[in-house]
Automatic annotation (TrEMBL):
Superkingdom of this protein's organism: Bacteria
Name of the protein this chain belongs to: LacI family transcriptional regulator
UniProt similarity note: Belongs to the UPF0065 (bug) family.
A Pfam family assignment: TctC
SUPFAM superfamilies in alphabetical order: Periplasmic binding protein-like II
Originating organism: Pandoraea cepalis
């Protein structure tokens, strides 16, 4: 190596080191503005997709947010409304966060009367991940395809477990019933974990949940996915067709998980969490684990989370109209 090249390389390393130290200093200053204890409230029971995203995020960021401790709190009920009300009334200093989902914040309010408006009453912080929804049965079921599911459901009603009244699974079940002309008896649970448990116990004939909720069980050969939502196949189950491929239109809305706070969370605090979430895109081991569990990691800005919420609400309105569902 000649002296000029060595000098340029050394200079780059020095500048890089200085930049890293400056970034670390800035980060430590930012972290100092966060509360010592932060509660991340999940609107479902432990064991489902939302709970898994929350706990994976907390575990992965523990070292980065070393001066703060994030505690996951499960508060199921009313398809997320119990948790949403709780967070909307908390202080907006970053000490109380909500794990919001497309189901609880965008779809639910259109199906079940709510006194809370997620756009007006909550602050978007970061879009964590996305996950398609899937119609699935037990591996031992005689139903092997969406076509055979439809055939059976036209003969007599089939039960379908969803993760709450007003959830995306609830909406998709209604859409499928409307578009395919079938009979589906919806059974609403307080979380996908409970619905899946009853599916495995043969207490319900099918479930409509996120791919993340059943990815491990599909790999274990215990659950058989029939079709997924979205305009394209998911990388989680590449061999499983979309509903559109199978001739059922309109089920093109995928789910997401994001972090929200009470209205008025300061931008500098929201930015800390969004930057931490975005930094996980540089963690190959974390991304691999998320993919294996059925999630596509995003890590967005607060503005992007807000835009995604509004876009999902617009899509859901169209689906609710097509399915001819009335607010309860």
């Amino acid at each position: 190596m000649d002296k000029r090249h060595f000098g340029r390389t050394l200079g780059a390393l020095v500048l890089s080191g200085l930049a890293l130290r400056q970034k670390a200093f800035a980060s430590s200053q930012n972290r100092a503005s966060l509360p010592r204890t932060i509660t991340l409230t999940v609107p479902f029971l432990p064991g489902g997709g939302a709970d898994q995203v929350a706990r994976d995020f907390v575990q992965a960021t523990a070292a980065v947010l070393a001066d703060s401790s994030i505690v996951v709190l499960n508060r199921p009920g009313a398809n997320g409304l119990v948790a949403e009300r709780l967070i909307s009334q908390e202080r907006n200093d970053g000490s109380a966060l909500l794990l919001g989902t497309s189901s609880t914040l965008a779809i639910g309010p259109m199906l079940v009367r709510s006194d809370l408006n997620p756009i007006d009453d909550l602050s978007p912080i970061t879009l964590l991940s996305k996950s398609a929804n899937v119609l699935a049965v037990r591996a031992e079921s005689k139903i092997s395809t969406l076509a055979s599911f439809i055939e059976e459901a036209r003969k007599s009603p089939l039960s379908c477990g969803t993760f709450g009244v007003g959830s995306s699974g609830s909406l998709y079940s209604s859409m499928l019933q409307s578009e395919a002309g079938v009979h589906i008896t919806q059974i609403a649970y307080k979380g996908s974990g409970q619905a899946i448990s009853d599916l495995l116990g043969n207490h319900v004939q099918s479930v409509f949940v996120t791919t993340s909720a059943i990815a491990a069980l599909v790999r274990a050969g215990k659950i058989r996915p029939l079709a997924v939502t979205g305009s394209a196949r998911t990388t989680i189950f590449p061999g499983i067709p979309t509903f559109e491929e199978s001739g059922i239109k309109g089920l093109d809305l995928n789910g997401w998980f994001g972090i929200f706070g009470p209205k008025g969370v300061p931008s500098e605090i929201a930015t800390i969490f969004s930057e931490v979430a975005r930094s996980l895109n540089e963690n190959p081991a974390f991304l691999k684990r998320m993919s294996a569990n059925g999630f596509d990691w995003v890590g967005s800005s607060p503005d992007q989370m807000g835009s995604e919420l509004k876009r999902t609400i617009s899509q859901a309105k169209r689906m609710v109209k097509v399915a001819n569902i009335e607010i309860q």
